[in-house]
Amino acid sequence: MAEHEIDERTRNLQRPATEIIMSTHTEPSEDLAQERRKATFDVQELSYVLNEGKDLLEKKQLFAELLASTPWGDKSRRYFLDREEEYVGALRAAFGIWEKMKSEKLSVEDAMIMRTLVDFPGGLELHIGMFIPSVMSQGSPEQQAKWMPLCTKLNVIGTYAQTELGHGTFVRGLETTATYDKETQEFVLHSPTLTSTKWWPGGLGKTATHAVVMARLMLPDEDAGAAGGSREGEEEGGSVGEGEEEGGSGGGHRTVVRDYGPHGFIAELRDLDTHLPLPGVTIGDIGPKAGFNSVDNGYLSFDHVRIPRENMLMRFAKVTPNGRYVPPPPSNSKASYATMVFVRADIVKNSGSTLARAVTIAVRYAAVRRQTAPAPGERELQVLDYQNCAATLLPLLASSYALSFMGAAMMERYRAFEAERDRGEFGGLPELHALSSGLKALCTWIAADGIEECRRTCGGHGYSKLSGLPTLFQNYVQNVTWEGDNNVMCLQTARYLIKALVGVQQGKPATGSAAYLNQVSSELSPSSRCPAACSDCWAGQPAVAAAALRHAAARAVVAAAETLRSASLAASGGTRQMVFEGRPWNENTVELIRAAKAHCIYVLHQTFLDSIARLEAAGAAGEVEAAVEAGSAVSGPTAAVLRQLAALFALEQLERGGGGAALLEDGYMSAAQAASLRVAHRGLLTALRPNAVPLVDAFAFTDYHLNSALGRSDGDVYRGLLEMARGSPLNATQEGPAWPEVLRPVLAARSKL
């Protein structure tokens, strides 16, 4: 670049203009520092709660420093990588963490913390998240002894191949088959249709050497063959099919198989020396996606590929050498829900931390971004001081706290279930399965929508990848579909709730989160009315909002049950009151999903209140300092701010989430009470505004973890944008890559004009 000299006359000419600008100029770093001085609670105290104690928080901060100093953990070029660089970089990071775990003798939990901080999903995601857990939970002791050392040493890399082009949530509809050949004691994996092609498994495209393949188990049915292809008393899940035996047509012996439904099989996909696909295996990457492009999601089909009988996962169901099917014990069919419930509980937990990252970025930026001066010569206003901005971000802040407490509670519930399962007790499983399903749906909807709202609130700079928000959204939004489509998850919850309601009506009390249905008659009686006498009741008396959400949930469940009952009676000619399938069910899914959502919103809020009460009670007991450092106690001022957040979460659901409309419709709430609710909602925005930045600081995300120019902890957002932008590959030269062959010829033509 040519030397640019500025003479004194030019400096003197500019000086008065610069003074005018500086008279109203503000430094964003000072704005953020000022916001922190407004805190009415102990930020560190709340950080310990949100990070499970002082020790774990300090470990996260230490790991962030360590990771930032490694070549594979460096994030400075993350937003400028192309697809191939993303894929390779993510694998390097995964292997870097694995090597660090070995060399420094770190625990698996430490490695998972590092994985979260690096935030670079790659080809090992399903090896860690599904392949190994499948072997551990479904493999026999002998299979675990064989495969687990190979997995942990990365001698093999696995994935989990279930979803197909034509089938996702409906697992029983999978079309990949595993047909047993008892002469060779092998299974033949085959993809008989285009739609049976496995599609989406992470790591399948270019990384995995093996997969747990979910395929329909087909076993020879000689009795059916002798009887002409059918027999009485077919075993559960078994349909019979016929085919010509190889080597003849017509008049020969017919091969008959029975379908035992989907089971898991370990299949080798690639040669361990060359990494090329094995014969009969067609495999590849499915191409670019809306996000998550560092992961090589893949496709897979089989053309009569043989695997040993021992590769069927046989901890529960088994196939003997002579082809006899041994079903799992009834208790194990319940135990198999454990992995599913754990994954969904973990998704709920992650929804809170992910939304919290987005809210941290957006709140910090809104606190330092200024726009529009009230009058000439005055400073522009902070964007967060505009009510519409606060009305977007502060309810999302409240939601991030609600989801965080719900995530912790779900993991506690899961651990309690594990203890019960080990004792052979499964009484609480239906409730836990229903709750984890509905909360998986609601929490991922809230988080995904919230991240996008945060991006929009950040204006033009939010559209830049350097804000961190586009990538956060693109990588997270898959959660509304992954591990069960959210609408299907809600329907599972609705089925449980309606069965619980029917049980109550038949004299069987509901338990757990559905216990409020025991009082449904009094709850929905004409005399049941909202007790709110003024706006202060909504904001300052938690029981008032909790009662309103409980009423909304009860009303939604009863309404869904009534529509289902009417449809069931009509479809069955009056013989069946409740049909949980077919046309009666399918034609009422809107009401059913609404009931599940209302139930889960009530549970979220009640869990929020219960968590605050527990923390405050511990803060009032002895050994307070130790309890605070353990993240299990808070002081009065901190509890007060948390109650404001819980109130805002509830009123947001009632005032803008649609819950209030239902309460007006059935007369539970009057028009005057609806107006006072709105006043209380706006009042909470004002009350929480001074604590907005301290409340996001309490999440204690490091700058390394956020990787955001707008969410920097020092507030220096504009310098951050410039510094990160300078790293763009397009800035490697001043002319740019189009100059030699595209731009120069066009611009050179000007001399001919």
From TrEMBL:
Domain Acyl-CoA oxidase C-alpha1 span(s) in chain numbering: 337-498
Cofactor dependency: FAD
Binding site for FAD: T163, G202
The UniProt record lists the keyword Cell division: no
This protein's GO CC annotations: peroxisome
GO terms for biological process, alphabetical: fatty acid beta-oxidation using acyl-CoA oxidase; lipid homeostasis
Pfam families the UniProt entry points to: ACOX, ACOX_C_alpha1, Acyl-CoA_ox_N
GO MF, one example: FAD binding
Keyword Flavoprotein: yes
Keyword vocabulary terms for this entry: FAD, Fatty acid metabolism, Flavoprotein, Lipid metabolism, Oxidoreductase, Peroxisome
Domain (Acyl-coenzyme A oxidase N-terminal) ranges: 42-157
Gene3D superfamilies according to UniProt: Acyl-CoA dehydrogenase/oxidase, N-terminal domain, Butyryl-CoA Dehydrogenase, subunit A, domain 2, Butyryl-CoA Dehydrogenase, subunit A, domain 3
Residue intervals of the Acyl-CoA oxidase C-terminal domain: 542-747
Region (Disordered) residue spans: 223-257
Sequence ranges of Acidic residues compositional bias: 233-247
UniProt-annotated location(s): Peroxisome
Active site per database record: E483 (proton acceptor)
Family statement: Belongs to the acyl-CoA oxidase family.
Protein name: Acyl-coenzyme A oxidase
Organism: Astrephomene gubernaculifera
